[in-house]
Amino acid sequence: MTSNIKSVAFFGASTGVGLAAMKHTLAAGHKCIALCRDPSKLTAIFPSESTPNLKVIKGNAHDISAVSQCLQTDDATIVNVIVSTIGAKPTGMTVDDPDVCKKGAATVLDALAQLRSTGITGTPHIIGCSTVGFSRFGRDIPIVMIPIYYLFVKVPGADKVVMEDRFAQSGEPFTIIRASHLVDGESDKTIRVGIEDPKTGPESKAVGYTISREDAGRWLAENLILKIDEKYVNKNVTVTY
User: What PANTHER family does the entry give (predicted)?
Assistant: First the structure.
């Protein structure tokens, strides 16, 4: 593997932000390893004969064995980047798994420790996909959106806060991307970015209503994978229109 080709592990890339980010990563010629409970969801989009840089592994993001497979390259090193966009499915006023993100973060970190204990080396940049609305440093959503987030996002939001903390306190380089309310449709709209230090608070603010999954995924790929802008490392980053 040449030094300018990155290896990227994706968790939750069968849809949404993760899928968009992986499309742009593959298009740029990088190697991707994706964990998927139903690999046919990805192979239908990325046929193996035309996408040699993608390896799809069947499994669950809470299974340390499957996760460990995704974190290793063919050269027996740890991948350069880890992207986790897993999330729970809404079921009325709550979600099907209120602990999906915190368990996923713990599994990734445990898998890294396990691999290193066997002599496999590497220091990946971990990217976790979270949400606005739950900053400890004040309001980061429009005032009119507060009731919606309180009623419908409170449970998954609390889960994502724990995920954020686990990555931030892990000692691994990380970036948390907090997207505003996700909608569909790629666009050429300007994406505004806010940066928050997990310890000291906002460095810049961006408060908005929505961003599309496709645009958020493209921004993630362009700014955190294809190149890594250092100002986003070890920060919480808001993306919105």
Answer: FLAVIN REDUCTASE (NADPH)
Q: Exposure pattern of 48-81 as b/e (b: 16+ CB <10 Å)?
A: eeeeebbbbeebbbbebebbbbbbbbeeebbbbb
DSSP 88: P
3-state secondary structure of 146: helix
What would the DSSP string read from start to end of 167-191? HHTSSS-EEEEEE-EEE-----PPP
Q: What is the pLDDT of residues 127-175, one digit of tens each?
A: 999 999 999 999 999 999 999 999 999 999 999 999 999 999 999 999 9
Sequence-ordered list of residues with C-beta below 8 angstroms from that of 4, at least 6 positions apart, any chain: none
7-240 CATH, one of 3.50.30.80, 3.40.50.300, 3.40.50.720, 3.40.50.620: 3.40.50.720
| Alpha-carbon gap, residue 103 to 126, rounded angstroms | 15
Cβ 232 vs Cβ 195: under 8 Å: yes
Q: Provide the pLDDT for residue 1.
A: 38
Q: What is the residue-averaged pLDDT of the chain?
A: 96
| Phi-psi map region of 92: left, alpha, beta (phi>0 left; psi -120 to 50 alpha) | left
Task: For the full predicted model, state whether its pTM sits above 0.85.
Answer: yes
The alpha-helical segments, DSSP class H, found in the chain are 16-27, 40-43, 64-70, 100-117, 146-152, 154-168, 213-220
Name the burial class of residue 150, with classes exposed (0-12), middle (13-18) and buried (19+) by CB atoms within 10 angstroms of its CB.
exposed
Domain segments of the chain: what residues? 7-240
